[in-house]
């Protein structure tokens, strides 16, 4: 139920209320949706919980320990907003037609899903599971590079000298692995990081440490990208409100570079 359903798409106050409701509900929808998928009953959110605590409580069905909450909270914070990334840009394009804020968020989610963007965290985890052990890592990455495979969770359009979000989350993720007596993912990561830097001058992006950190926290791989969404809706909503406050249609020009002045060939002669 949306009490602001009939509000104009440029009504600032209504948009802020919509944004607050989306940010508040996104994690609950994903975590309780997961419970329902597992044949479990949805749980009531606890108002005293932070967003991170609440998500983990709903997903696990019990209170999470402080280290888990700290890491998960850090990942949500790092994922929450990242200027004109593909999905936020797509969200702004949608609302710039004076469509509504919800449609902008849906556009953003559809764009985030791809493996070159938010879907990279799930793909990075599949890759780490395929590699399996630190002993396999060097041969695996050598083979992948020789076959011109993309190594998911590495590279970034903007950060050519390293993703500051990844540096922070890598520290937490590797410490978590050691703390849980499962340092193997961190050791595989060390080999991939070194090789990718030496051979391709590429650094890990935030999706790489997020992948094995979530795995170590017991989060199912299929929730990684939806979790990214629960954080990034804050960024989408803020951008959408800003766009609608001072709107102009976003309509890039295309420059035609094909052949010109071609003779017309009738259909029958083609
Ligand atoms: C994020 C990404 C799309 C940025 O792309 P981009 O800015 O267009 O980077 P480029 O395609 O110009 O990359 C330059 C070179 O590095 C290579 N490269 C980039 N990322 C690579 C990766 N993850 N693994 C292997 N090679 C990679 C490209 O193939 C290209 O090589 P070439 O010059 O021999 O063709 C890209 O790095 C990528 O696909 N990464 C994996 C997916 C991912 O982790 N996405 C999450 C981003 S936060």
Q: Stretches where pLDDT falls below 50 for ≥5 residues?
A: none
Quickly give the CATH architecture of the largest domain: Orthogonal Bundle
The shape is flat
Percentage beta strand: under 5%
Q: How many strand units? A: 0
Enumerate the distinct ligands: coenzyme A
Task: Give the class-level CATH name of the largest domain.
Answer: Mainly Alpha
SSE class: mainly alpha
Explained architecture:
With 270 residues, the protein is mainly alpha-helical. It has 2 domains: 12-115 and 231-245, Citrate Synthase, domain 1 (Orthogonal Bundle); 120-216, Cytochrome p450-Terp, domain 2, CATH 1.10.230. It has helices at 12-37, 51-60, 66-79, 86-95, 101-112, 120-131, 134-146, 164-179, 184-200, 207-216, 224-245. The N and C termini lie far apart (57 Å). Coenzyme A (COA) is lined by residues 116-117, 120, 150-157, 200, 202, 205, 207. Coenzyme A binds at residues 116-117, 120, 150-157, 200, 202, 205, 207.
Short description:
With 270 residues, the chain is mostly helical. Helix content is 60%, strand content 0%. It starts with 11 loop residues before the first helix and ends in a 25-residue tail after the last helix.
Summarize this structure as a short list of keywords or feature phrases:
270 residues; mainly alpha; Cytochrome p450-Terp, domain 2; Citrate Synthase, domain 1; binds coenzyme A
